[in-house]
């Protein structure tokens, strides 16, 4: 039974699974789920010492060398991007996972059934709990502002016609409610898309645009009204500028090779002063704790300031967000913007899109931080929250709109946002934004009435991974003379993450997970699994094992997702079980460990997942369970990623990689493609700042989407 079938099992599609916080002391320790007592945890309940586990003893599970053993000159050994060669190409493979897991079925079905029953019967109880902050955790209360009935009338049932009046039915067959997404799905068209996990759409296969990660916020059919209003972020300066410290490897960023390709790139800058930003921005940068530019910032800031389009690829956690926000804000300050004022139709100068709600909220908070004390007003809107609330925020003034794609199109359709003034269009996690899940929606966005043509706007794309075929698609969005910045190897893993791959069969995974988590102690750990149901299941299981755990995935209500993230951020629940909805972009302080309980089916996804640790020069560890039965097609790209990041490669993994016949040797398949450099071959030009190296990329055949 594949993932599709698991989706179909969900009985009440619009009701979130109800597993907000797994508090180990609040359940009875019976062998199955019938005795499981789900108790929404409050801060005080979770704040006792009960979550303490044995301290991490650094033994056993990590076969790789310790971070301290790393060769200090390793960055000098970096191979040129052109050496990617025949690796990094694997086949997408579906039908893995939980449902095929005899072990899980045999040993846990009673547990699971009991657990599921409770989900179904108690799901509505979630609305009784208070909302929590999504960022920097630990704040209580939500809600604000009286509802504006004008806006709310439009929600939930009948979408406004507007310019997109008929788009839903055309795109997805059955429409989708503003607040409802059928999760029963048709089962069609999902298999080949696996690995992008829950952000993939139900319903209409590859042509469907709708994201489960987005929660199905846009659409025309009936569904329960979304009433969730996220708590406003704290307004005090300390909170706005709260940040964590750069790590011991921050300075090593300077040794990473950077390649800039495209015609006539401006030279990189070496310091913030060289960027000539206004005083307010400089103050904000200092208050944010930024003393030194990261490589992607050194290159991207002058390129954006020079008015060029940009596709930038740099490792996870290396400061891509500021790389686009700072020059955009600098331009806005220089050119002058329309000061925020109430208007029914707002015309932002900048639109930023990102694939998940939590990520776009994080970007918004960064935008708010850097624009602090200026007249630039940033607003965020994302699915799973009350549309009327978003609109009320927007109409008060909006220079920078941060949005998830579905919600953005809804707001445009409601004619609350006009596009005529758009000067900057930013696609964060751009490869994800352009793939089959979001690509159609992005195309609609750029062909919306009023949207300036690509010649008239500046389009900026950022990601840590950029498969070649996505680069080619991106051409439609970018001016032909766009610049491509590759910091290190495109799609390469962050070297500050010590990667360990363990051979663990399905039947042993849970035991191994518990062993590792007990050794880790209270250090913050993200555990990635492949399906939403499995996320709930594993989180519940860990709770039974007295390990304080919460979970985040696309079947949870937004309130629950934000609460889970808040509890994880503030350390109340040091373990977060997540699907790939949390794989990209999330910047959470002190995540020391990532565990791939299930490996993803694409290597890019792996790179993003492990990038939740080892950020901003800090070190981290990633442990992946490699199941011979289901993961062998990932062996080749995994060996490539490990060796490029100068990690130990287990001999057994190498053996599998070389014995597995895979598309690595036949041109590649979507998903595991490892882009080497700018796909516009032969146009490479070295930048002048002394960091670069260049080599003509190997030609790679065009691939079709199918
Ligand atoms: N120049 C800098 N000095 C100090 N800290 C920085 C600097 N640039 C960024 N940071 C911090 O580094 C962290 C990671 O930055 P960011 O989230 O932008 O990374 P990213 O490259 O977008 O990662 P991902 O690929 O995972 O999305 C953030 O906490 C950010 O505030």
UniProtKB/TrEMBL annotation:
Residues 132-144 have a biased composition (Gly residues). It is found in: Cytoplasm, Perinuclear region. Its EC number is 3.6.4.13. A motif (Q motif) lies at residues 270-298. Residues 22-234, 683-706 are annotated as: Disordered. GO terms for biological process: meiotic cell cycle; regulatory ncRNA-mediated gene silencing. Pfam families: DEAD, Helicase_C. Residues 67-80 have a biased composition (Basic and acidic residues). Residues 301-484 form the Helicase ATP-binding domain. GO terms for molecular function: ATP binding; hydrolase activity; nucleic acid binding; RNA helicase activity. Keywords: ATP-binding, Helicase, Hydrolase, Meiosis, Nucleotide-binding, RNA-mediated gene silencing. Residues 29-45, 684-697 have a biased composition (Polar residues). Residues 270-298 form the DEAD-box RNA helicase Q domain. It catalyses: ATP + H2O = ADP + phosphate + H(+). Gene3D superfamilies: P-loop containing nucleotide triphosphate hydrolases (3.40.50.300). The keyword Nucleotide-binding applies. Residues 512-657 form the Helicase C-terminal domain. One of its GO terms (cellular component) is perinuclear region of cytoplasm. Found in a mRNP complex, at least composed of TDRD1, TDRD6, TDRD7 and DDX4. Interacts with RANBP9. Interacts with RANBP10. Interacts with PIWIL2 and MAEL. Interacts with BMAL1 and CLOCK. Interacts with Tex19.1 and, probably, Tex19.2. Interacts with RBM46. Belongs to the DEAD box helicase family. DDX4/VASA subfamily. This is RNA helicase. It comes from Moschus moschiferus.
């Amino acid at each position: 039974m594949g993932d599709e079938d698991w989706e179909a099992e969900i009985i009440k599609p619009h009701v979130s699974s109800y597993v907000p916080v797994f508090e180990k002391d609040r359940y009875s320790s019976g062998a199955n789920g019938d005795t499981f007592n789900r108790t929404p945890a409050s801060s005080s309940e979770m704040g006792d010492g009960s979550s303490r586990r044995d301290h991490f003893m650094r033994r056993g599970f990590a076969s790789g060398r310790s971070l301290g053993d790393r060769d200090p000159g390793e960055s000098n050994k970096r191979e040129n991007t052109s050496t990617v060669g025949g690796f990094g190409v694997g086949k997408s493979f579906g039908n893995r996972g939980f449902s095929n897991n005899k072990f899980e079925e045999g040993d846990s079905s009673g547990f699971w059934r009991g657990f599921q029953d409770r989900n179904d019967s108690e799901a509505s109880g979630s609305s009784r709990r208070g909302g929590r902050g999504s960022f920097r955790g630990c704040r209580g209360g939500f809600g604000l502002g009286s509802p504006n009935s004008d806006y709310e009338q439009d929600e939930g049932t009948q979408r406004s016609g507007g310019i997109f009046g008929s788009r839903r039915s055309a795109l997805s067959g059955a429409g989708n409610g503003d607040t409802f997404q059928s999760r029963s799905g048709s089962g069609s068209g999902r298999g080949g898309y696996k690995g992008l996990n829950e952000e993939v759409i139900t319903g209409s296969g590859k042509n469907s645009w709708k994201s489960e990660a987005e929660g199905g916020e846009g659409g025309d059919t009936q569904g329960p009204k979304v009433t969730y209003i996220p708590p406003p972020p704290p307004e005090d300066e300390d909170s706005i500028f709260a940040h964590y410290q750069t790590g011991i490897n921050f300075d090593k960023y300077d040794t990473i090779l950077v390649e800039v390709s495209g015609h006539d790139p401006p030279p990189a800058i070496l310091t913030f002063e060289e960027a000539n930003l206004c005083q307010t921005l400089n103050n904000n940068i200092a208050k944010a704790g930024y003393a030194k530019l990261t490589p992607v910032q050194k290159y991207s800031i002058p390129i954006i300031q020079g008015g060029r389009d940009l596709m930038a690829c740099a490792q996870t956690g290396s400061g891509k967000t500021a790389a686009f926000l700072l020059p955009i804000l600098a331009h806005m300050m220089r050119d002058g913007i329309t000061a925020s004022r109430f208007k029914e139709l707002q015309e932002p100068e900048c639109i930023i899109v990102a694939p998940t709600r939590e990520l776009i909220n994080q970007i918004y908070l960064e935008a708010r931080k850097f624009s602090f004390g200026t007249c630039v007003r940033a607003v965020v809107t994302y699915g799973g929250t009350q549309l009327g609330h978003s609109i009320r925020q927007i109409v008060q003034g909006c220079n920078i709109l941060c949005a998830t794609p579905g919600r953005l199109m809804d707001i445009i359709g409601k004619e609350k946002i006009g596009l005529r003034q758009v000067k900057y269009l930013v696609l964060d996690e751009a490869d994800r934004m352009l793939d089959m899940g979001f690509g159609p929606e992005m195309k609609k966005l750029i062909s919306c009435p009023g949207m300036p043509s690509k010649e008239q706007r500046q389009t900026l794309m950022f990601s840590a991974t950029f498969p070649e075929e996505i680069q080619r698609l991106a051409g439609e969005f970018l001016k032909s003379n766009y610049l491509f910045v590759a910091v290190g190897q495109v799609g390469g893993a962050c070297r500050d993450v010590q990667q360990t791959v363990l051979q663990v069969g399905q039947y042993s995974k849970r035991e191994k997970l518990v062993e590792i988590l007990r050794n880790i102690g209270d250090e913050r750990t993200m555990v990635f699994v492949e399906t939403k149901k499995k996320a709930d299941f594993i989180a519940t299981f860990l709770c039974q094992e007295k390990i304080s755990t919460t979970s985040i995935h696309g079947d949870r209500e937004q309130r629950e997702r934000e609460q889970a993230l808040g509890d994880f951020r503030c350390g109340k629940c040091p373990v977060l079980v997540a699907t790939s909805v949390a794989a990209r972009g999330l910047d959470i302080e002190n995540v020391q460990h990532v565990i791939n309980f299930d490996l993803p089916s694409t290597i890019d996804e792996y790179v993003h997942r492990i990038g939740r640790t080892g950020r901003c020069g800090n070190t981290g560890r990633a442990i992946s369970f490699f199941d011979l039965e289901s993961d062998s097609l990932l062996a080749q790209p995994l060996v490539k990623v490990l060796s490029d990041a100068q990690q130990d490669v287990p001999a057994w993994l190498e053996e599998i990689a070389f014995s597995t016949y895979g598309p690595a040797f036949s041109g590649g398949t979507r998903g595991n493609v490892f882009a080497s450099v700018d796909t516009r071959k032969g146009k490479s030009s070295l930048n002048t700042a002394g960091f670069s190296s260049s080599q003509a990329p190997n030609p790679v055949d065009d691939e079709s989407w199918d």
